[in-house]
Specification:
It is a single chain. With 184 residues, this protein is α/β, with parallel strands linked by helices. The chain has one domain: 3-Layer(aba) Sandwich (Rossmann fold). Helices cover 24% and strands 27% of the residues. The protein contains four helices and seven strands, in the order αβαβαββαβββ. A seven-stranded mixed sheet has the order 3-2-1-4-5-7-6, sandwiched between helices.
Length: 184
Amino acid sequence: MRIVSGKHKGRPLAAPKGRDTRPTSDRAREAMFNVLEHLPDSPALSGARVIDVFAGTGALGLEALSRGAAHVVFVENNRAALDVLKANIQTLGEGANTSILPIKAASLGMPNAAVDYAFLDAPYAKNLTEPTLHVLATLGWLNEGAIILVEVAQSESLTPPPQFSLLKEKTYGAARAVFLRFFR
């Protein structure tokens, strides 16, 4: 697994052993970021603030940093994934541009600053995505017009809360990427 584009292009990322963490493949990540960069009226990724929930290895958030994002908040509570996430941040020298919240997504509090992009890649079939979208919206994590990339199992249903509009859906192997926009 590697960073696909930007200032860290080609740099390797570690992943924890076992099946608890399911990193997004390089190809799928590249395709997802291509969609993000070409959505109409999207905030610029350069200088953006991002939250990567259920971060795992941090591949999505670190890809955003490589492509010019200013700051990424990583939310992850799995101990093995946290260790790998910290190592990946250190390997890329991105410690000053990141924050780690070692908590469950449901435990998120009020943010220091709202974000322009949110990435959610919850464990499949655990019904964590919709409640997390609700938490992000109600606690002020999302700027008006923020773009949310949600990764779910291809067969998993997703009904976003009313303040989210569906922009696009794409299938990548066993995963389905759902692109949403937030409105207050």
